[in-house]
Design a protein that fits this description.
38% of the residues lie in helices and 14% in strands. The chain is built from twelve helices and ten strands.
Length: 307
């Protein structure tokens, strides 16, 4: 009986999600209205998965967010037994969605799967609650996934870098997957903002950098800068330069950063490191799937009259 109730609840959730997926909603990461009535063709391969996976609303939401964020970079979904499946990338790389392991925070950073990468929701807009301990949405990255999308070696990444005009300077940024175009649109937004509030210029310029093939300090993990999908602004602070902060200190730190700048980046598919427990307030990173997931989840939770 309990099993049947759970199955009915899952079906109701899927029905609600299905309504959302056939609607268009503004995904600024693409710079235009994204028509979800025509999702990525590879989502059709979900039909080949076992029913228990097909009916998992969280899995479907994750895959829809990846479809919106990365589109043709993913080729299909393939099952690997009754409980597991992988994404086959356009370059042939196979990326496991869920390895089935229970992990602590450090292991999630060092050996994540796609489920780990998408598990912590990114919350666009001003925060009213500070991040909890180890709540760092977007800081967990599956390197194999980003290598498949943006390049597996420095030479491959550099071959995809393109010049982007940005507030009177030119930076090199990742040309694949719309990242450079999105940064260009951020530049336009910021230019308009600075025309109204020129005192904010010191928060942004001179830039600290974009592409840099390097490891994250204190780890063997590649930085998002290694794929050319991150930009560091002039003014900010980083948890390794000081200490981890108490909740109210984190909120105060976030409030001290001009939210108009944060909003300009978020509107184009970038996340802000200032929303991490391991804060990095100068860091912005192109992660369209996390913004897509936040908006899809919000639409799914909204009353039908508001859709």
């Amino acid at each position: 009986m309990k099993f049947m109730i759970k199955m009915l609840a899952a079906q109701q959730l899927l029905s609600s999600l299905a309504v959302v997926l056939i609607l268009s909603f503004p995904l600024s990461a693409a710079g235009q209205t994204q028509d979800l009535s025509r999702p990525a063709p590879w989502l059709q391969s979900l039909d080949q998965l076992p029913e228990v996976l097909r009916q998992n609303e969280a899995i479907r939401l994750d895959l829809q967010a990846l479809a919106v964020g990365y589109g043709a970079a993913i080729q299909k979904v393939v099952g690997q037994g009754p409980q597991r499946f992988s994404l086959v990338m356009a370059n042939g790389r196979i990326i496991l969605y869920d390895d089935g392991r229970l992990k602590g925070p450090e292991e999630k950073l060092d050996r994540p799967d796609l489920e780990d990468m998408l598990a912590q929701p990114y919350r666009p807009g001003p925060l009213t609650q500070p991040p909890q301990a180890n709540e760092d949405p977007g800081r967990i990255r599956v390197e194999a996934f980003f290598q498949a999308v943006y390049g597996a070696t420095p030479a491959e990444v550099q071959a995809h870098l393109v010049p982007v005009p940005f507030l009177g300077t030119t930076v090199r940024f990742q040309g694949n997957n719309g990242a450079a175009a999105a940064l260009g649109r951020v530049g336009v937004r910021l230019s308009q903002l600075l025309a109204q509030k020129p005192t904010l210029r010191g928060y942004i310029l001179p830039l600290q950098g974009t592409y840099n093939h390097r490891r994250i300090a204190g780890s063997e993990r590649l930085s998002a800068h290694a794929w050319g999908i991150a930009i560091d602004l002039h003014r900010g602070t980083y948890w390794r330069w000081g200490r981890l902060l108490a909740p109210m200190e984190l909120l105060a730190l976030q409030a001290a950063s001009p939210q108009e700048i944060v909003q300009a980046f978020e509107a184009e598919g970038f996340i802000w490191g200032g929303k991490w427990y391991h804060y990095d307030t100068m860091h912005f990173e192109y992660r369209p799937e996390l913004l897509a997931k936040a908006r899809l989840a919000a639409r799914a939770a909204a009353p039908a009259r508001d859709r």
